[in-house]
Amino acid sequence: MADPVIIDPRLIAALIGAGVASAGWVFKAWLDKAQDQNRRLERVRDVQTALAAEILPYLEVLELFDLTDHLEKVIDKMRAQAGYFPLVPTERNDTVFRAVLSEIHVLPEPVIKPVVRYYSQLFAIEALIEDLRGQGVRDLNDDAREAMYTDYISMKLQALELGKNAVAAIDAQLGKRP
User: What is the pTM for the complete model shown?
Assistant: First the structure.
């Protein structure tokens, strides 16, 4: 008969210890990955919530009055009073967007496009406002000034629609109902 193989208890203890340590490393790696994923999801939610919080007040302001009616009244006044041109206030409605622009890639794909389109429209409006506030617009003929102001209001109407689309996309990703 063959002698039974005797395994040193220290070897068994070492193998068990190594197995537990390895399992601990695997578990820790899995836990770290889950925590990273949770932090990323929280960041995505935070960015979307902040963008919606910035967009909504501007939409509310745009909806306070009838922009088309406003345009008609201003055009009527421009035609009735030679040289009249309304004061166009400066606007800044993109503070949050500028702050998170470098992280825009964290947003879900269905949110990126409508949000970027909305803010692109705001940037175009800001550029037009700068032109409308300049002396150059005062030197234009009445028809050109009318056309520029009409473009300005049209751009604001488009911003209203683009903003609604952006908020709807954010709400859909956050699981909110319209």
Answer: 0.80
Which residues are CB-contacts of 141 (< 8 A; sequence separation ≥ 6)? none
Confirm if 91 and 126 have CB atoms less than 8 A apart.
Answer: yes
The DSSP 8-state label assigned to residue 175 in this structure reads T
Name the nearest CA neighbour of 88 among 23, 140, 153.
Answer: 153
Helices (H), the chain: 9-64, 67-80, 95-100, 109-133, 135-138, 142-174
Q: At what angle do helices 109-133 and 142-174 cross, to 10 degrees?
A: 160
Q: What is the mean pLDDT of the chain?
A: 90
Q: How far apart are CA 73 and CA 83, in angstroms?
A: 15
- At which residue do the structure tokens 């009249």 appear? 84
Task: Render the burial of 124-142: b for 16+ CB within 10 Å, e for the rest.
Answer: ebeebbeebeeeebeeeee
> Largest alpha-carbon pair distance within the chain?
121
- Copy the structure tokens of residue 44: 């995505």
* Averaged pLDDT, 95-99: 93
